[in-house]
Amino acid sequence: MKLPDTLLIPDNCALVLIDHQAGLAFGAQSMDRQVLLNNTLALVRTALAFDLPIIVSTSATKVYSGPLLPALRALLPEHPVLDRRNMNVWEDDAVREAILKSGRKNLLFSGMLTEACISLPVLCVQQEGLNAYVVADACAGLTDTGHEMALRRMAQAGARMTSWLQVLLELQRDWTRHDTYDAARAIVEGNGGGYGIGLNYARDML
Known about the structure:
9 helices; 6 strands; Rossmann fold; Hydrolase; globular
């Protein structure tokens, strides 16, 4: 059966992580920082479980923002991190080339700040004929209003809004897919809050 083009599958998407750094997390007020970290870790674990290309970029590491958050670096210990000076990764030759080299048309975006470092490249890739998926609960802005306005603007430009759990369930889609079942279930149990507690309970009761 041919899968609908509107659905994400492991072979058609890549993850773009932008500026998950402590200096920016200090200023992000639109989401509890621990929730943001939990959601981002779940998203990265999902990308690893389904073997998605992952492009990681940071900015101003020596000036203000600091390195990639340690918890993310622990998940991606040998992964290249592309540092840059500008806010828009699409205007950075190295990052843009890495994204295009992935060969994937559907790009999942996660990072900070929603108002600039997420919205600017998302608006650009949409114009390039690529599909931007903003993992909204793995992004944060300076304010609730700023975050929400950025999400609205991106959506108006054609970007798709999603969440880390929707990404995971969309990629798995069928719990009889044994190759990724254990990893997907472990992510839900470890990062999925009440849903994960329910899965643990069901396993213990059976």
